[in-house]
Amino acid sequence: MATATRQGRSSRVTGSDLADVLRMPTSTWTDALADYTTQMRAAGRSPGTIRLHRHYLHHVERYVRRPYAARTGDLTRALAVPHWSPETRKSARGAVASFYRWAYLNGHVEADPSLGVPSVSVPAGQPRPTPETVLLRALDLADGRLRLMLLLAAFAGLRCAEIAQVHSRDLVGSTLYVHGKGGKVRTVPLVLDELVHAIRRADGHLFPGRVDGHLAAGTVTTMLSDGLPDGWTGHTLRHRFATRAYAGTRDLLAVGALLGHSRPETTKRYVLMPDDALRAAVLAAAAA
């Protein structure tokens, strides 16, 4: 039987103590992320989702040396980044919860430490469509590549990550097959000949880069923000698309389908109600 001495005192290490030591989680983040990535690929998660999960888990690595030794407090501190928006914090929490749920189901941890991490409440967003004057000015000043990004966001409603992935093979006639969140694919008819011709001529990715052959989503986000006045972004261009599309159709479900939303409640946060609709409602109430 082994004996250990600490501060001049002899203490006996029992067999059960040794078993506890041997059971201590010793896997590295490199090994854990490799196994988790394999699981995500097997589950059909999109490359973008996999990159996002790995990004947030690499952030957690700064607070947790061994992935399977994490405690709830460690994860809570990792997610308490002061400058993160509620949306970013919620996305990070989702990635962390998914990883530790997988770790628990596969026997890597005896209990899921993410269960005690506080949930994140995201305030309901208000529609903020980019004004037409701002968009037209940006288009006038944009070079060819930035101009195409602006058009895809404002006139087709694509997210920055979706713009980054546009490929000539995804264009059938004038319909673009858009690779959205979670690997979901939707179709968006393109009404601007300029976009159709540019994608067709690309003979590959419209915006070549080093992330699976195309630009990173973050690069597109930065370029759009830099190409617009302060306060306007690629996301507000999607709000512009949603607002204009709804004003012309009054069909919230169609607008949601074009944006890649699964719930109309989400689409409502993108649509600024047209003035004529509000005025008609007030007049109807007055007539009653």
Overview of the structural elements:
With 288 residues, the protein is mainly α. 54% of the residues lie in helices and 8% in strands. It has 14 helices and six strands. The strands form two sheets. It has a three-stranded antiparallel sheet. It has a two-stranded antiparallel sheet with strand order 1-2. Helix 6 packs antiparallel against helix 7.
Mean pLDDT: 90
CATH fold name of the largest domain: hpI Integrase, Chain A
- Output the strand order for the largest sheet: 3-4-5
Q: Would you state the CATH class of the largest domain?
A: Mainly Alpha
The count of DSSP E runs of length 2 or more, i.e. the number of strands, is 6
Q: Kindly, what is the distance between the CA atoms of the first and last residues, rounded to a whole number of angstroms?
A: 92 Å
Instruction: Tell me the radius of gyration.
Output: 25 Å
Order of helices and strands: EEHHHHHHHHEEEHEHHHHH
By CATH, the architecture of the largest domain is named Orthogonal Bundle
Question: Class by helix and strand content?
Answer: mainly alpha
Tally of separate helices: 14
The portion of residues assigned to helices is: 40-55%
- CATH H-level superfamily of the largest domain: Intergrase catalytic core
Major β-sheet annotation = 3 strands, antiparallel
Can you tell me the residue ranges where pLDDT is under 50 for at least 5 consecutive residues? 1-11, 16-24
Q: How many structural domains can be distinguished in the coordinates?
A: 2
Q: What proportion strand?
A: 5-15%
- Name the shape in a single word: globular
